[in-house]
Amino acid sequence: MKKLFAFLIAAVGLVACEESVDKSDLCGKWKVTSISDAIDGVPDGEGYDGEFEGDVIYTFNEDGSYEIEDAGEQEYGMWAYLDSVLTMCPDELIDSFVVKLVSYTGDTLIHQSDEDTEAGLVSEVVTLVRVKEQQ
After folding, report:
1. Residue 68 belongs to what H/E stretch?
2. How confident is the model at residue 46 (pLDDT cuts 50, 70, 90)?
3. What is the mean pLDDT of residues 47-67?
4. Which position has the higher pLDDT, 24 or 52?
5. Would you say 84 and 21 are in contact if contact means Cβ atoms under 8 Å apart?
6. Distance CA 118, CA 135 (A)
7. How far apart are CA 85 and CA 69, in angstroms?
8. CB 3.0-4.6 Å disulfide test: which of 29, 71, 81, 94 passes with 131?
9. Are 92 and 62 in contact (CB under 8 A)?
10. Residue 108 Rama label (left phi>0; alpha psi -120 to 50; beta)
11. Which residues contact residue 21 at a Cβ distance below 8 angstroms, ignoring those fewer than 6 apart?
12. What pLDDT, on the 0 to 100 scale, is given for residue 48?
């Protein structure tokens, strides 16, 4: 998971969504269900498909704070969604990072980050599903 966040820190992207998304649409809890990685469009085989050591949960709060829970570790920071751009700034980092919203359907959120490296363009696509609050 640390690889995911280190990768996202360096990621820069623009946002393109299938439907109009407001900041309030993103608030709540989201569970990571898959992560896929590719170099220059070719899958590298190091992705994830539902088998983390416990759930990875993103929580976007209305006050602009966020938390990511992963195997007992937490990352906290601030987030913003403005003019179709999702920006996350972890508390322990000076720099923020931007991810591209690839798709949003209300219950599913897919974001992508891209980074130019010596190996080529490295892309990571993360799929999250909304966690339903228990009554």
Report:
1. strand 65-70
2. low
3. 81
4. 24
5. yes
6. 49
7. 23
8. 29
9. no
10. beta
11. 81, 84, 101, 104
12. 58
